[in-house]
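Supplementary Methods S3. Input chains for the assembly prediction are listed below.
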Amino acid sequence: MNLTPYIGLLAGLLTSGAAIPQVLQTYRTKHARDLSMWQLVLLNLGMALWLVYGIFLNDLPLILANTFSIACYTGLIAMKLRYAARDRAACDKFD
Amino acid sequence: MNLTPYIGLLAGLLTSGAAIPQVLQTYRTKHARDLSMWQLVLLNLGMALWLVYGIFLNDLPLILANTFSIACYTGLIAMKLRYAARDRAACDKFD
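Predicted structure tokens for the full assembly:
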């Protein structure tokens, strides 16, 4: 029994699913100051290319995982822009 | 000329390299409050499995990209733990 594809599948679920707690925390705290905008933008560009790659290879897991991740990281970019004024407030009580 | 492998290569470089600005920002600002610890831990677990997957498939790009990413995200976990006391400070001036 060859476990390799299952390891890849679980790896993909974990790395894609990892965005969920970040999205939830950012939505809940309404703070995104410590998230690097460059990271979010580079991740989105990279995942858009993974999506194109998945489409070229007709690979459904690649297509689904990257579509989901792009949605999450685009949401984080939107929240970071939206909470920027709040994040700039000089005295930023920890909530 | 088939562009598909180059798209995959560029996608991998972007998604792996995306950690660099986050590591630099966190190191510079000494703040990691808005980073989700669950995201960092799940990413590390997922990438450890991608690394195992790459070793099983003997795929050097997968091995190199995930070793690099694990180093970056382990560094971010270490910084998040180290800066936790600072991040808990009630009045957290924006620097």
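Chain B is about 80% helix and 0% strand. The radius of gyration of chain B is 16 Å.
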